[in-house]
Each structure stands twice: as C-alpha cells, then as structure tokens.
C-alpha cells in the first residue's frame, strides 16, 4: 500500500512538472510569434504567420526559404 502511495505521489509530481513545461512552452510560443511579427514589420519582411500553414517562399536559387529560420537569425541578432 505504501509503495502505491509513493508511486501516485511521483506520478502527480511528474504531471505537475509536465504541466509547468507546457505552460512555459505555450507562453514562449506566443512571445516568439509576437517578436517574429514585430521583426517582420520592422525589417519590412513579407510573411504571414498562420498556425495551420507554413509557407516557404522560393529564393533566387529555386530552393525553399524557411522564414522561421530567417526570423530566428534576426532574433539572434537582436539579443
């Protein structure tokens, strides 16, 4: 019986940790989206952030350009 109680306690602790991580990830995701939009406006980058779709524009060399990577480069430069 004591082992069961210990296991339940450990399970609850893990669930609490997972919930905290999820909340943090959600917050960071919203913050990142806001900063991305702000940087796109500031630097005149065309880009529409949609949650269901990812649009990859084509560069001069006919290769897809991931705007998230470009935004990441901009964010690194800001920090």
UniProtKB/TrEMBL annotation:
Recorded superkingdom: Eukaryota
Protein name: Uncharacterized protein
Organism: Oryza meyeriana var. granulata
């Amino acid at each position: 019986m004591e082992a069961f109680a210990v296991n339940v306690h450990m399970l609850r602790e893990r669930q609490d940790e997972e919930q905290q991580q999820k909340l943090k990830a959600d917050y960071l995701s919203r913050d990142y989206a806001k900063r991305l939009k702000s940087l796109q406006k500031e630097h005149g980058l065309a880009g529409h952030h949609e949650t269901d779709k990812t649009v990859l524009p084509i560069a001069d060399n006919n290769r897809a350009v991931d705007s998230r990577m470009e935004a990441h480069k901009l964010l690194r430069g800001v920090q």
